[in-house]
Amino acid sequence: MRIPYGGDYNPEQWPEEVWKQDHRLFDAARIDTVTVGVFTWARTQPSADEYDFTTLDRIVERVAAEGRRICLATGTGALPPWLAKAHPEVNRTDFEGRRHRYGQRHNACPSSPVFRQLSTEMARQVARRYAGNPAIIAWHVGNEYGGACYCDLCAAAFRDWLGARYSTLERLNAAWNTTFWSHTFTGWDEIEPPSALTEHWRGPDHTAFQGITLDYLRFMSDAMLANFRDEKAAIREADPTTPVTTNFMGMYRPIDYHRWAAHLDFASWDNYPPDDTSQARMAFTHDLMRGLKDGQPFWLMEQTPSYTASRDVNPLKRPGLMRLWSWQAVAHGADAVLFFQLRASRGACEKYHGAVVGHAGRSDTRVFREVAELGAELEKLGGVTLGARTPAKVAVLFDWDSWWALEISDGPSRLVRYQQVVLAYHRALWDAGADIDVVPVDADLSRYDVVFAPALHMVKGDLAERLEEVAGRGGSVVTTFLSGRVDEDDNAFLTDVPGPLGPLMGIRVDEWDARGPEFVNPVRLDNGPVVDARLLFELVIPQGADVLGTYEADFYTGTPAVTRNAFGQGYGWYVAAGLDEVGVGWVVRQVLDRHNLGGPYPDVPDLETALRVTRDGTRLLFVLNHRSDPVEVIARAGGVDLLTGTHVHIGQPTRLDARGVMVLRQP
Q1: CA-wise closest residue to 233 among 143, 158, 141
Q2: Binding residues for Zn(2+)
Q3: For residues 646 and 369, what is the distance between their CA atoms, to the nearest angstrom?
Q4: H or E, element range at 207
Q5: 329, 322, 284, 619: which is closest to 431 by C-alpha?
Q6: What is the mean pLDDT of residues 127-153?
Q7: Distance (Å, rounded) from C-alpha 454 to C-alpha 458?
Q8: Among 212, 309, 433, 627, which is least packed by CB within 10 angstroms?
Q9: pLDDT value at 106 more than 90
Q10: Average pLDDT of span 465-476
Q11: What phi, psi does 423 have (nearest 5°)?
Q12: Residue 281 and residue 649: Cα distance in Å, rounded?
């Protein structure tokens, strides 16, 4: 066994004489796994009552004959044109209330009975035909689920969803606070999807009733999950064991991947960073994907070997970057490394998207050479990393409900973005070299010594009590401004901010001040630097907490900006302002130092370490140099580099090339 290596392959786009050339090139690149059939619905089902598997049969037979493994898709990632024409109601209605005609992808109404029936039957037909084929190692349902629909079918389904959630209109009216603006509903059929025609102005994030909009976001995520579950159930009729997945998109706001996670046999995701300096952001997203299934490894389902074609500007991956980022994925839990795409499309919107094999079919390009070299490395590594886990003692909470609720709120500031706040704290942890799990708010926290909960706007269920348990047994809990504001219905707690987090934090927030990005209030940190704070400034009154940072300007000069509260054997930290990178880093290092949880090279910028532990207890330390120049350090961790066979001894000078990688098997 070895890490599956390959990617998305669409041979239906080319004549069969090209296939032979492709497979020769795949051999040269050590590609052993292909994802096929992702967008084959129109070809496989050319009309309502006709299935034609001729092309897909030849594709599957050829791939299997070449000895490669198959991730077989159901083909339902986009509608066929005949279906949209025969049943116009399957086309989505957008936020502005416009019924769309046929085109693009992500183009199906998830509530349409016709779509659900025919997509499920498509999955059933594919599974019946190919179940039991030993080349198939995974099923791939749909593709990059996303978007939203606001049609009458979705309105009816939304009302049914609300009925199941709230049972009574009395409960719904209380949750949505409908006494405001005379919105009390007296019949379920009075409820409309929140859109530009109803509750919204200036776009999807500006709503008169946050509760309605929040529930529609939850509903739409669940509606698309129902589509996935329909197809998975159809597959299971023919194949009860082969794992089923779909490809996520990392920090994708419209879909709550935590609500989906239990229904996937393994998580997989498509990694398309916005620039060449996204290494910390990618580390966060890998950690998020790994956290979806309680630390279970995931698949890197897609990445470009060179450049994307979906943005205004699409930079080329510099030499060595593809290899480095692939190894970073493995370091954070990837059990597969796959590309989009294996051969470049000839036409349409992805013809300039990067590919392992370009339009000319050459093997002497830099991109192909780097793909082949990585394939050889993965082949040499074998299966040693498969199934390995990350023994993190630090957790970062990530919550789609808090994300949604914070960013659809009319105040205190629309400039504060949930994602940016969470990333700032994860980046500081990443810089310090900590191994991190990114987990949902209902995760088991008993194995963590440190829990960061930045911008935990919504506090649900028993979360406050579980955070208190972390601190009570000697751990540290860190949260920030705009935390503990609302309950699960997005209604304010009728108590001082930070609501149920108040006893743990030992503070109350009396007022808050929101300003534009040009406004800076310096914060003086205890025995530390003076740092800048921007966007939001909460005015804190300690209720037992110690003050570790104070504002330096405005009428609240000298009042607390950073506090630490003794709670049980541990602490609750509260950061009341939008500290800059240095300030966030100071807080993070203070917390990690108490628990001795930093990495071996916390003071070497962009030298990343990540630990995985195999099923037999073998420790694998990944060391990754994200710099464009070599770095030399005194080794603080030893072992045998599985990529080169080199022995690294603690205390000896060790050099990593620019964008270099080591995988140390530790004694």
Answers
A1: 141
A2: 109, 149, 151, 154
A3: 24
A4: none
A5: 284
A6: 98
A7: 11
A8: 309
A9: no
A10: 98
A11: -60, -35
A12: 31
Alpha helices in 146-209 (DSSP H): 152-166, 169-176
Candidates 241, 185, 238; CA nearest to 215 is: 185
Q: What is the DSSP string of 91-110?
A: B-B-TTSPBP-S-SSS-B-T
Average pLDDT of the segment spanning 532-546 = 98
Mean pLDDT within 562-581: 98
Which residue(s) pair with 541 in the sheet? 508
Q: Contact at 8 Å (CB) between 222 and 258?
A: no
Least Cα distance to 147 among 252, 42, 239 occurs for: 252
Annotated catalytic residues are 144, 302
- Whole-angstrom Cα distance, residue 346 to residue 314? 18
List, as one string, the DSSP characters of 411-453.
SS-TT--HHHHHHHHHHHHHHTT--EEEE-TTS--TT-SEEEE
The whole-angstrom separation of Cα 498 and Cα 490 is 14
Task: DSSP letter for 389, please.
Answer: B
Please, what is the angle between helix 152-166 and helix 210-238, to 10°?
Answer: 100
Annotated binding site for substrate: 105, 143
**Residue 284: its H or E element:** helix 279-291
Residues in the chain: 667
Do 435 and 394 touch, CB atoms closer than 8 A? yes
The identity of residue 101, as a single letter, is R
HSE-CB at 385 with a 13 A cutoff on CA atoms is 35
DSSP 8-class letter at 118? H
Q: Which residues are annotated as part of the binding site?
A: 105, 109, 143, 149, 151, 154
Pair type for strands 619-625 and 298-303: unpaired
Nearest to 356 by CA among 383, 309, 311, 322: 322
Closest CA to 660 of 608, 633, 624, 631: 624
How do residues 325-336 score in pLDDT, each as one tens digit? 999 999 999 999
How many alpha carbons fall within 13 Å on the CB side of residue 345? 15
What values do phi and psi take at 71, rounded to 5? -100, 105
DSSP 203: S
Tell me, yes or no, if the pTM score tops 0.85.
yes
User: Structural domains in the chain?
Assistant: 5-147+242-381 (3.20.20.80), 394-595 (3.40.50.880), 607-666 (2.60.40.1180)
pLDDT of residue 613: 98
DSSP one-letter code for 211: H
Q: What is the DSSP string of 236-269?
A: HHH-SSS-EE-EE-SS-TTS-HHHHHTT-SS-EE
Averaged pLDDT for residues 74-96: 97
